[in-house]
Amino acid sequence: MDASDLRRLALGLPETEEKSHFGKADFRVKNRIFATLPGDDTGVVKLTPEEQQMVVASEPGVFTPVKGGWGLKGWSQVRLAEADQTTLESALRMAWRNAAPAGLRKRVEGDAG
To answer: Band of the pLDDT at 47, cuts 50, 70, 90?
Structure first.
């Protein structure tokens, strides 16, 4: 995977917009950031600490916690070249759910069911 893949997959999620955060691309749902693209080979996703522990344990070559306090909150770095599409899609969906308002999540998950 690469930056264009992350962009394509993130923008495919409901009501996602691409904006900029400190000069880097970010992806938002209802103006809440759920992923960023700090470089061509790296993405960052907003996971819960529990989700972060799970993905780091299962895919240590792909995921690492962001350094500092943001990493303690679940923000996780993704090595895009090491990720396959299924893994990246799953991480982006988790991150999207963590940022999306409850009403939107309920409406989207109800549509999917």
So the answer is: very high
- C-alpha–C-alpha distance, residues 9 and 43, integer Å: 12
Indicate whether this model's pTM tops 0.85. yes
The Cα 3–Cα 48 span in angstroms is: 23
How many angstroms separate the CA atoms of 81 and 100, rounded?
A: 27
For the chain, give the mean pLDDT: 95
Nearest CA among 97, 92, 90 for reference residue 43: 92
* Torsions phi, psi for 72 (to 5 deg): -65, -25
Strand partners, 79: 42
Predicted confidence (pLDDT) at residue 113 exceeds the cutoff of 60: no
What CATH number labels 3-101? Answer: 3.90.1150.30
Question: Who's near 71: CB < 8 A, 6+ residues apart?
Answer: 52, 65
Distances (CA, A) of 58 to 45, 52, 74, 97, 100: 16, 10, 15, 20, 25
